[in-house]
């Protein structure tokens, strides 16, 4: 039996309604306040992501066998990172790298706003297997948010190294 917890729901809604979150939820998002934007088509190309924003998927035909980096969190990053797209104007590599660094700094600020790190949260979960269900769910939700931010930073790093022009 399969249970559908309403497709296209972010972790905060899953947590609110059902008491759980997912570390690889492709619908989760981050809020960015700066003006930095990366080129959407280039970002998608680096990770072999195809489809429309509501239907992004990893194109297995174009991907290397055994590459497991692209998961729901990378697809969520593709949906949530501020992007621009103009098929007639190619991105300028120096400006794209500058935008990547600015977005990584914003991600680091988002992480710094938490009182604990993802490793500390994981240790807390591992150290208290008998924790109340609500406490465990809250820690997991916080951990999943941090893991999404960390995965976004890594994805931006990889993108910066492999920008396709």
Automatic annotation (TrEMBL):
UniProt entry tagged with the keyword S-adenosyl-L-methionine: yes
A Pfam family it matches: Rubis-subs-bind
> Which Gene Ontology CC terms are recorded?
chloroplast thylakoid; plastid-encoded plastid RNA polymerase complex
User: One biological process GO term for this chain?
Assistant: plastid transcription
Cite the GO molecular-function annotations of the record: protein-lysine N-methyltransferase activity
SUPFAM superfamilies, per database record: RuBisCo LSMT C-terminal, substrate-binding domain
Which PANTHER family does the entry mention?
PROTEIN PLASTID TRANSCRIPTIONALLY ACTIVE 14, UNCHARACTERIZED PUTATIVE METHYLTRANSFERASE
Can you say what this protein is called?
Ribulose-15 bisphosphate carboxylase/oxygenase large subunit
User: Which organism's genome codes for this protein?
Assistant: Trifolium pratense (Red clover)
Q: What are the top taxonomic ranks of the organism?
A: Eukaryota, Viridiplantae, Streptophyta, Embryophyta, Tracheophyta
């Amino acid at each position: 039996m399969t249970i559908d917890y309403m497709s296209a729901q972010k972790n905060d809604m899953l947590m609110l309604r059902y008491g759980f979150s997912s570390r690889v939820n492709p619908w989760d998002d981050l809020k960015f306040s700066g003006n930095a934007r990366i080129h959407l088509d280039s970002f998608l190309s680096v990770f072999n992501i195809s489809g429309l924003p509501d239907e992004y998927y990893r194109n297995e035909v174009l991907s290397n066998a055994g590459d497991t980096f692209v998961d729901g969190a990378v697809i969520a990053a593709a949906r949530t990172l501020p992007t621009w797209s103009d098929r007639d104007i190619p991105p300028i590599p120096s400006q794209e790298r500058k935008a990547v660094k600015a977005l990584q700094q914003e991600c680091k600020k988002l992480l710094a706003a938490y009182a604990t790190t993802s490793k500390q949260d994981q240790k807390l979960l591992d150290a208290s297997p008998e924790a109340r269900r609500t406490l465990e769910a809250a820690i997991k939700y916080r951990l999943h948010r941090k893991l999404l931010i960390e995965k976004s930073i890594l994805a931006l790093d990889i993108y910066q190294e492999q920008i396709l022009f």
